[in-house]
Amino acid sequence: MGILQHTQMFRHDPENGVYGDCWRATVASLLRLPIDAVPHVCDGPDDGKASERMRAFLESQNCALIQVQFNGDMSLKQILDYVGAVSVSGGLHWCLMGTSRTGCNHVVICKGAEIIHDPSIAQSGIVGPADDGLWWVEWVVQRSACDSPSPETLLPPAVTGQMEIDQDVTAADMGVNVECAECHGTGEVFGHADDCHDDLCALNGDIHSCNGQVQPCGCAAPKPHVQGRPDGHCGDDAAWKEFVERYGKMSREELGKGNMSDFALANAQFMCDRNSLDLIGYQTAVKDRIRWLSIQLAKALATASEDGR
């Protein structure tokens, strides 16, 4: 499964109070999220804290941001060739920040030595290093259990589906629908594989299948018992289906901040200092909780309707 290809919602025009959101467009594309599910961390004059805000959001998604700076004396081709080498990027998608043709900082997504997605409205591309004279290279990666920053932000194993396995045991032996194109489930090499051929499966995507961890496929589990989209739930059927696939199989405890009750989470978000980096984590958790509760309500209504209540 590849990335989404979001186009940014706002073209950079700071003189009129509009700040470009190319960064969140690339992050949403990599995480396969709706663009408005990622905060616009650059929505205002540069305060030097955009990376901190993005890290706070990614932490709520059990992910981390890795940033590396390169000398601006390197040409665009040199930076693409160097970082795009398998020995450096490992075949992963990576982001490159530099200056666009319109003269402002811009972020694009690369794979190997090629730019594969430009979120710009005008397709302005990258023509040189960023305004600080450096090339910025970034990876968005999923945290493993041993790298979790804190118990509050680590998603439970039931969400990530990660489990340790013996090297002599294959994914097939465990009844898990996982196969790596390189090792075919033997775990002999490090790689990534789609865990499910169903594009709508919430667990589909690039996973680590060859480093002692596998991710069970959720498609064998019963589908959420929701028939149709109730009034007031989502703006259209396609969005509703996407949310059902994503949240319908999860329990409250498997959500971000899942150890907090609905009331406690709402109160924590309301009371959180608007200048605190914790605010993004609480806002994301509240958004996911509301979507999850909406699906639980729809399931209950569908069951009550079938029972003739």
Attribute tags:
8 helices, elongated, 309 residues, 3 domains, two-stranded antiparallel sheet, Cathepsin B, Chain A, single chain, 5-stranded antiparallel sheet, alpha+beta
Explain what this protein looks like in three dimensions.
By secondary structure, the chain is an alpha+beta fold. 28% of the residues lie in helices and 15% in strands. The protein has helices spanning 22-31, 50-60, 76-84, 86-89, 157-160, 237-247, 262-271, 278-306; strands at 63-71, 93-99, 105-111, 114-117, 134-142, 163-164, 192-194, 206-208, 213-214. A hairpin with a 5-residue loop joins strand 2 and strand 3 (105-111). Helix 2 packs parallel to helix 8 (278-306). The model is unreliable at 150-226 (pLDDT under 50).
Sum up the overall morphology in one term: elongated
Question: N- to C-terminal separation?
Answer: 42 Å
Q: What is the CATH domain class of the largest domain?
A: Alpha Beta
CATH homologous superfamily (4th level) name of the largest domain: Cysteine proteinases
Number of strands: 9
Number of domains: 3
Q: Helical residue percent?
A: 25-40%
In CATH, the topology of the largest domain is named: Cathepsin B, Chain A
- Low-confidence parts: 150-226
Average pLDDT across residues?
75
List SSEs in N-to-C order. Answer: HHEHHEEEEHEEEEHHH
> In terms of structural class, how would the helical and strand content be classed?
alpha+beta
- Amount of beta strand: 5-15%
Rg for CA atoms:
21 Å
Q: In which order are the strands of the major sheet placed?
A: 1-5-2-3-4
Report the major sheet.
5 strands, antiparallel
Name given to the CATH architecture of the largest domain: Alpha-Beta Complex
Report the total helices.
8
